[in-house]
Amino acid sequence: MRPPGEFSSDRALAQAKRDALRFLAYRARSEAEVRRRLGKRYSPDILDPVVSYLKEFRYLDDLAFAREWRQHRERVRPRAASVLRQELLGLGVEADVVREALEGFDAGENAYRAARVVAGKLKGREHPIFRRRLWSHLHRRGFEGPVIQEVINRLWRELTDPLHGDVDAEAEE
Question: Which of 103, 132, 137, 166 has the most CB atoms around it within 10 Å of its CB?
Answer without folding.
Answer: 137
